[in-house]
Amino acid sequence: MYLVTKLHFHRKSKKLDVHFDDDVIYTLPCEYLRTHSPSAEVQGHGAEQSKLVLNKDAVTITALDPVGHYAIRLSFDDGHNSGLFSWQYLRELGVNHTTYWQTYCDRVAQHNEQAHSVPIKFMP
């Protein structure tokens, strides 16, 4: 199990550096963290229930509150603050950033396609 040794938030670029005890550092954008929050609001109550969180490209972190020695609560400027980001989950987000982000972008594109499609009714 990895421990986070340092968190550094860059306000201008809206990115969070997560430093681990094995000298690995991941830089995670606010939008990615917000759209992948471990909260029930985003994840639902099971793998098939995850919610698609849209329009968070301008979101930023307003507070980082430690939770024991195992997690951090991130508060975002859209009011979301119910996800506890464990060190393990932050590591997972870092390791899988490219894959998770691509999957998210694909889901957004699919959503936008469906939102802009108009069903055609044929008259008999």
Q: In order across it, which strands form the biggest sheet?
A: 1-2-3
Mean pLDDT: 91
Q: How many alpha or pi helices?
A: 4
- Spatial separation of the terminal alpha carbons: 64 Å
In helices, the fraction of residues equals: 25-40%
Count of beta strands: 6
Strand content is 25-35%
* Overall form: elongated
Provide a concise account of the structure shown.
The chain has 124 residues and is α+β, with helices and mostly antiparallel strands.
Would you mind describing this structure in some detail?
By secondary structure, this protein is α+β, with helices and mostly antiparallel strands. Helices cover 31% and strands 27% of the residues. A hairpin with a 7-residue loop joins strand 5 and strand 6.
Descriptive keywords:
124 residues; alpha+beta; three-stranded antiparallel beta sheet; 27% strand
Set down the secondary structure blueprint:
Elements: E1 4-10, E2 15-20, E3 25-29, H1 30-35, H2 40-43, E4 61-67, E5 71-76, E6 84-86, H3 87-95, H4 97-116
